[in-house]
Write a structure and sequence with these properties.
Pathway: Amino-acid biosynthesis; L-proline biosynthesis; L-proline from L-glutamate 5-semialdehyde: step 1/1. This is Pyrroline-5-carboxylate reductase. One of its GO terms (molecular function) is pyrroline-5-carboxylate reductase activity. Strand 5, helix 5 and strand 6 form a beta-alpha-beta unit. Helices cover about 55% and strands about 15% of the residues. The model has no long low-confidence stretch (mean pLDDT about 95). The protein has about 270 residues and is an alpha/beta fold. The chain has an eight-stranded mixed β-sheet. Helix 7 packs across helix 12 and helix 8 crosses helix 9. It binds 1,4-dihydronicotinamide adenine dinucleotide and (2S)-3,4-dihydro-2H-pyrrole-2-carboxylic acid. The site of 1,4-dihydronicotinamide adenine dinucleotide (NAI) has 27 residues, from helix 1 and helix 4.
Length: about 270
């Protein structure tokens, strides 16, 4: 089986590691490299996978996953440059880092895929957007799609959409968690015990998301079904409009996309 090296085992690298194991990859086919010794020890003990310095982990791997912060990418690429084989696929999950940037810092002709996953990958409900680099073959892309498919849904899009993908689905869970927190806080304000408010909010989010997926209806139709004339929902929605919550989402998501562009240091 293809050996997979995960370089950087923080939130995303760790999520990928556990998803691969859940989906049946053998621990001996996965090697991780993490510069924080305590995290490495914990993951190696928990998952029985091997660990090695980045150079060693990358050498001989069929797929090398780069899961470090964008700021750490130049150093990592310099470290592994001479360890990438001719057929190795390099998959980067870093926000803002383009395939061109990676290709310029890896051996000429390296197959590269830029991926934008999200943290629901931890529970196999991820959303990953993939974009192929210049030297990425159909087989490379299929490998990357299969890899990302182990922890959720996958879309393959032109790279020009990656900043939008980062802003919508990459960072998206943060907005949903923020809304969740706010709704729980509102329940507490109305006198509910925090645990009761949490259960109500979480099941409501889960139910609403499931409804959107299963009915295929536009969210505005589903919202109208909840909003009885002169009732409670319209009273609340009017406040959300008055406080420009929709406009705030547009501005916020634009800011995330802008930040994704800024993180890209060019080629
Ligand atoms: N957290 C998220 O929701 C998402 C993160 N991403 C991207 O994933 C990448 C990683 O993000 P997180 O996992 O959140 O960060 P993190 O900080 O949790 O993990 C990064 C890990 O890389 C390690 N590291 C850095 N340089 C290293 C090196 N040279 N050798 C070995 N290990 C090294 C760090 O010690 C750290 O544990 C980022 O580029 C981010 O843009 C993408 C989608 C979602
Ligand atoms: O906030 C970030 O920069 C990363 C990329 C997408 C989600 N988390």
């Amino acid at each position: 089986m293809t050996r997979i090296a995960i370089l950087g085992a923080g939130v995303m690298g760790g999520a990928l590691l556990s998803a691969l194991l859940r989906s049946g990859h053998a621990p001996e086919d996965i090697v991780l490299s993490e510069r924080m010794a305590a995290s490495t020890r914990e993951l190696v003990q928990q998952y029985a996978v091997g660990s090695a310095p980045v150079e060693e982990a990358a050498r001989g791997a069929g797929i090398v996953v780069l899961a470090v912060k964008p700021q750490d990418m130049p150093g990592l690429l310099a470290q592994i440059h001479d360890c990438i084989g001719a057929d190795t696929l390099v998959v980067s999950v870093a926000a803002g880092i383009s395939t061109g940037y990676l290709e310029h810092r890896l051996p000429e002709g390296t197959g590269v895929v830029r991926a934008m996953p999200n943290t629901p990958a931890q529970v196999d409900q991820g959303m990953s957007i993939l974009s192929a680099g210049r030297h990425c073959t159909a087989e490379h892309l299929a490998q990357a799609e299969q890899l990302a498919g182990t922890f959720g849904r996958v879309l393959t899009l032109d790279e020009k959409h990656q900043d939008a993908a980062t802003a919508i689905s990459g960072s998206g869970p943060a907005y949903i968690f923020y809304v969740t927190e706010a709704m729980i806080e509102a329940g507490v304000l109305l006198g509910l015990p925090r645990s009761t408010a949490t259960e109500m909010v979480v099941q409501t989010l889960y139910g609403a998301a499931t409804m959107i997926r299963e009915t295929g209806e536009h969210p505005s139709i589903l919202r109208e079904q909840v909003s009885s004339p002169g009732g409670t929902s319209v009273a609340a929605l009017r406040q959300l409009e008055d406080h420009k919550v929709r406009a705030a989402f547009l501005t916020a998501i634009e800011a995330a996309a802008r930040r994704s562009k800024e993180l890209s240091a060019g080629e």
